[in-house]
Amino acid sequence: MILYTPLAYEEIFPNEEGTESCYVETETGVVMLEKNLEGEWVVGKLISPNPSDYLDPKYEPGTLWNS
Fold this sequence. Notes:
Layout: H1 9-12, E1 21-25, E2 30-35, E3 41-47
Antiparallel strand pairs: 1-2, 2-3
């Protein structure tokens, strides 16, 4: 299924109930964090204009976030 919309994925398909998420600003972009079952924050998504950020292992989805 293809959706042609300017809306974010989360606005069309909201998180499961009870799942917490937040956005954190980084040096060059924004990271969406989600709380896992153990109560730890993990990277869900990266939004950055810098292509090299997407190659950085600390922004890889599923990585534990150390603030």
